[in-house]
Amino acid sequence: MIYKRRTVLTLIVCVILATSLGLTNVTNVDSKTELIPHRSSVSLHTLKSINDHQTIPDCVEVGDLMLLDIASDESTQWKQSGLYNEHGGIYIGNNTLIDSGVATVPNGVHAYNYSFFYHYQKNFVFLRVKTANESQRHAAAAWAISKIGTPYQFFYQPPWFGLKIANPHLPLPTADAFYCMELLWAAYYNQGIDIDQNGWRFPWWVTGDDILADADIEIIYRNVTNSTEIIKPFKGVYIGNKKIASTLEHSVIVGSITVEAVTYNENITRMDFYVDNVFKSTDTSKPFQWTYGERVTGRKVIKVVSYDAEGNQYSSTITVRKIF
Questions:
Q1: Residue 282: pLDDT above 80?
Q2: Residue at which a domain ends, from 223, 256, 275
Q3: CATH code for position 63
């Protein structure tokens, strides 16, 4: 009970400070980094070279944002339902983006070649802050560059969870740490543009969906080729084929369950369903479904493989706890 009271008190403090969290000027860019012109021959000293040659779409300019879904088991706490809402980066030129994540040691803000993002995404979108002028977009990119080396804020960890803070100099926990969407939001908030459609309403964090739905945002490029995802079961407790509670990670299934998958790729013609890599069923029409009625108990991995008319394959997996 004491812990809960402290948590509530912390959130109250957050509300009081919310209006001042973003009132800072752009910090000076570190002398060791620089804003890179689009496709110039210059590179960042922090850039990790990827032995690949994926190039960013021609329409993308400095300051544009990339949102993507991660190609991983859907049971992880990072996975969200819907498109383009699990991770993001800001483009700074020279085929390079900056993000804040946990894919490196140490965790935090880094600059990477576009190929790095391309190879761990399932599907992605590029966004432009349409209410920003070129100077503001470049300033947002410069602000992100200045945060290279800043630690990562773990969204789900106490005391402040996913609270967003645009001023890293405030004497507050996590003020100098950023999760991915917070970094993108703060880059533009420091230019006077709030790209979080939720504003400062509870719960005071920013998600990929909040950025996508904001009126300041427009989509300039999208890819849904590998958009196959399992939507049922998804992070919940299911009894009698009905979801009775939500979970952060693995689903718990009691009894039979209708497994359902979706794709936004209109060329998909069929889906195959597997359990622990053993083929179970095929469905050739929407909604793509299969009833998992086998009476087993334990950890099971459900996989869906989708196919288009040309034979290309895309897949998604989810780990569940099955009871009967």
A1: yes
A2: 223
A3: 3.90.1720.10
